[in-house]
What does this fold into?
Amino acid sequence: MIMKTSNDELKEIVKQKYSEIALQDKETNQASCCGSGCCSTEVYNIMSDDYTQMQGYNPDADLGLGCGLPTQFAKIKKGDVVIDLGSGAGNDAFIARSEIGETGKIIGIDFTPAMIEKARTNAEKLGFHNVEFRQGDIEKMPVTANIADVIVSNCVLNLVPDKDAVFKDIYRVLKPGAHFSISDVVLVGNLPDALRKDAEMYAGCVAGAIQKEVYLELINNNGFKNVTVQKEKAIVIPDDILSNYLSPAEIQSFKSGNTGIFSITVFAEKPAEEKTACCGPDCCN
It folds into this structure.
């Protein structure tokens, strides 16, 4: 019998794992399941996109944990206020900072103290005074409403049990007419239970993923418009990792079926405020 793990327990698992990851180097993280330590003789690296040529890239902030390049699609402008959800060591925040210039502001939010400390150290070394890192849950961000021009996130929402709460808070924090670009892991079809429910795989980005159609439905149901999948790519798990969870026959069935694990980058906008209708003698002729 598989015991159901509570949301609080899952969050604690992720916090502990990412505290360990904060102390590892990029190569170690890239050779494991999102840094979770379920090592493979094949490199299981869902982050196959290359950050190194992007303006603002800093190797000290790159722990190899992402599953896309959300900043590349986020339509960030000079002077924008950008919030990075699950900011880690600061990789996406520093790249976004190169786009906002000196007049904008970056706020990174992460609930792992070790990651916040690492990100703040990196920002201080770089001399960035308009990049700030705050510890907190992304389901209830430590920021006021209607403050952000853009929200980005890279392979983080899949780790959060209550994704609906995250999208609700994204809506609260975005300015009217503002938008987000989020890279995340989603499923098509159902993963075998042993693979989906294992705690190590949860911290490794896979078991926390939900169905792609459900993910997009959550965004639409929370009032966003112009929901667009900007990029999509398949994620392949090597056989030697699958063998930790599945029998040879189950592996064959899994690989030959319609089930898939994907990285998607999704864009959506918060609607602009509607103008108030003419309602008195001072606003109409």
